[in-house]
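SAMPLE LOG
Freezer: B-3
Tube label: C17
Construct: single chain, 245 aa
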Amino acid sequence: MYKLIGLDLDGTLLNNTQEVSEINQYWIKQAEDAGIIVSFATGRGRISSEQFWPLITPTSPMIVTNGAEVWKNHNELLSRHNLPENTMERLYQLAIKYDIWFWAHGESFLTNKDTWNLEEHTLNEHKWLKFGVVHEEPKVLQEIREIVESWGGLEVTASAPTNLEIVKEGVSKASGLQEVTKLLGIKPSEVVVMGDSLNDLDMIKWAGLGVAMANAEPVLKEAADKITLTNEENGVAEIIRSILK
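STRUCTURE (predicted):
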């Protein structure tokens, strides 16, 4: 019934020590042996997710940076959706104004407030994929969200209660999966996705079987077709086992 499984990484496939358990690895292999394509759909960029790519077959597509990059397989880029021109200048200045920690994905690098070098990462010369900010105070994050959304042309989501992640408008894990399924000739009804955070919400609603982890945000659990075990309890393996019965 299902032809593609899209997996979030942090809080989903990865446990709390940023590892993939042997049980999850075993059931991913079982799914692939059964002819199901397993793909990652992550907010991480290629640079920070590539260490996990060997767990799945090299021909599998990859959705990274919240859909801002979609890889046809592990070597061929299918699409790239950059932030609108001059957006990084405004986002950078906003983060400086609020004096908050931030990070940013370029096309071939990842930088943050601690490693930022204006000479190396010239704001208006590089092409940027995603910008993120972190703050413990929800009120501050809400203020920043409202400012960014008022600009238009941007998509604002989150991968944790304490952050915001910003990409080009219309870009999401769901849009990345749509590109992949169109390429492969697969229907949304034939897709299983699993996630735990707000940046997984669109794909949870879009897929034929949207699965929320037991440790997921409440809004994801409400939208999901099914709730599995936590990322510490091999919830990914539990779902794969059930669909292979």
